[in-house]
């Protein structure tokens, strides 16, 4: 088979057979199909798409580029969640220990930052010593001991996605339903779960910016999950402004530590509790999502979620003293406040622009091999709907990169809109989606 012919076939809108897809994906994983040909293929998929059968096949081939972990020795219904990607989306860091503290095992394989969005692995690695590259035996041992384990793809688990993810990040081929589906579901199906909760983001900071596209993605992900025999449900959640107050790896860890100790970050915790409630329900520890949410709230208020997080950090080699004393972490050389020039209310904070500004400050990657500055990022002092006076601090930028500061400040000034009149509040959790369809949700 010739890769060029297969690229042309997809470019012209054709459907690849199992053998053809295997040839390309395996060939790429084994180093026989070069990056430039895989990049061209990904771009062809971006423009021409895949039908459902082809998407499921692609996912299956990605999944079987590695092994499927057998977690049957660990008792309980194993449940994970995955987000389609957002800005300031640090939910997993609170969710995994919180749900584990409710008695549901949470095996979690996560990704790195992608495009303008952050990644759980990068956030975890901002904790000094924290190892996300565990062997399979270590992964199982941590899961058994702590109730959750949070790792990245290894060479055994969905290696095709590990390679393709990095390539998509830098070739403008992220926002594609079949590619996102193959990427997310191959990782999730490989990690040994019984059920999955998806957080499908919509809005400016999401890969699927319109609700229509996000719902189409959700339906595909759920159908793929069900095809592989995993109960899969999704929530459609808003990502038009960043989640929480912090954007940037260590800054987000600190925000999560605060939340696990009871700090009030309403939007972040609303998403975390909703997803957690669903996981606890799917894990058969609660009869309904509402009952699951109540258990999750108790896990936070009792301190059990935080204690589980500390044990997770210790079990994966992290230095717990930074969790207990976050203030001892190094600080950025430059901390620049952006103040409001007008009075009124925050009308919007453009999550996409914030994501890109974060990358300029060093909190994300522009190239595959770029090293992240873990302490860099953006701290918001005001969010959508907050009242603002002239001179109030809207946000603080943190970076060591002097050269990028002015441009980042300009970008942020444009991204935060202050105007007269309190804006209409948007619903953060818009719908529950399952195999039976889309169920719109009212705000709580
Ligand atoms: N998250 C993933 O793991 N993969 C994608 O393609 C997008 C979000």
The averaged pLDDT comes out at 94
Counting helices, strands and paired strands, the structural category is alpha+beta
In total, the number of domains comes to 3
The level-1 CATH class of the largest domain: Alpha Beta
Amount of beta strand: 15-25%
Care to describe what's here?
With 444 residues, this protein is α+β, with helices and mostly antiparallel strands. The chain folds into three domains: 3-49, Transferase, Pyrimidine Nucleoside Phosphorylase, Chain C (Transferase, Pyrimidine Nucleoside Phosphorylase, Chain A, domain 3, Up-down Bundle), CATH 1.20.970.10; 79-325 and 429-440, Nucleoside phosphorylase/phosphoribosyltransferase catalytic domain (Pyrimidine Nucleoside Phosphorylase, Chain A, domain 2); 333-419, Aldehyde Oxidoreductase, domain 3. It contains 17 helices and 14 strands. The strands form four sheets. It has a five-stranded mixed beta sheet with strand order 1-4-5-13-14, sandwiched between helices. Strand 13 and strand 14 form a beta hairpin. Helix 1 (3-11) packs parallel to helix 3 and helix 5 (91-101) crosses helix 12 (266-282). The longest helix is centred in the middle third of the chain and has 17 residues, at 211-227. The model has no long low-confidence stretch (mean pLDDT 94). It binds uracil. The site of uracil has 9 residues, from helix 9.
């Amino acid at each position: 088979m010739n890769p060029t012919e297969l690229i042309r076939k997809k470019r012209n809108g054709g459907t690849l057979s199992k053998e053809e897809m295997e040839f390309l994906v395996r060939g790429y994983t084994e180093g026989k199909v070069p990056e430039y040909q895989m990049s061209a293929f990904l771009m062809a998929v971006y423009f021409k798409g895949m039908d459902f059968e082809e998407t499921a096949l692609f996912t299956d081939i990605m999944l079987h580029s590695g092994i499927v972990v057998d977690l049957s020795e660990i008792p309980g219904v194993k449940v994970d969640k995955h987000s389609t990607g957002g800005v300031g989306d640090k939910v997993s860091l609170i969710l995994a220990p919180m749900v584990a503290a409710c008695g549901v095992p949470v095996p979690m394989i996560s990704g790195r930052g992608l495009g303008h969005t952050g990644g759980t692995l990068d956030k975890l690695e901002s904790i000094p010593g924290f190892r996300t590259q565990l062997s399979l035996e270590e992964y199982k041992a941590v899961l058994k001991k702590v109730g959750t384990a949070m790792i990245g793809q290894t060479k055994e688990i969905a290696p095709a996605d590990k390679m393709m993810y990095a390539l998509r990040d830098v070739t403008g081929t992220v926002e594609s339903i079949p590619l996102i589906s193959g990427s997310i579901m191959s990782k999730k199906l490989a990690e040994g779960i019984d059920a999955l909760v998806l957080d499908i983001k919509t809005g400016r900071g999401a890969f699927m910016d319109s609700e229509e596209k996000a719902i189409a993605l959700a339906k595909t992900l759920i159908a793929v999950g069900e095809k592989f025999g995993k109960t899969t449900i999704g929530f459609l959640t808003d990502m038009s402004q960043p989640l929480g107050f912090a954007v940037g790896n260590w800054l987000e860890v600190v925000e999560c530590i605060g939340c696990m100790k009871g700090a009030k970050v309403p939007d972040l915790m609303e998403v975390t509790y909703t997803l957690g409630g669903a996981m606890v329900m799917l894990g058969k520890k609660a009869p309904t999502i509402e009952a699951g949410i109540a258990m999750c709230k108790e896990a936070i208020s009792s301190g059990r979620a935080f204690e589980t997080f500390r044990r997770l950090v210790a079990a994966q080699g992290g230095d717990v003293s930074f969790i207990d004393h976050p203030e001892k972490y190094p600080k950025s050389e430059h901390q620049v406040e952006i103040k409001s020039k007008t009075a009124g209310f925050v009308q919007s904070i453009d999550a996409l622009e914030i994501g890109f500004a974060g990358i300029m400050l060093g909190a994300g990657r522009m190239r595959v091999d770029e090293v992240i500055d873990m302490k860099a990022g953006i701290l918001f002092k005001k969010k959508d709907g907050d009242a603002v006076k002239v001179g109030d601090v809207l946000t603080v930028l943190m970076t060591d990169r002097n050269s990028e500061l002015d441009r980042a400040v300009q970008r942020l000034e444009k991204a935060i809109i202050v105007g007269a009149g309190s804006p209409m509040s948007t619903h953060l959790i818009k719908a529950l989606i399952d195999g039976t369809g889309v169920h719109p949700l009212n705000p709580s």
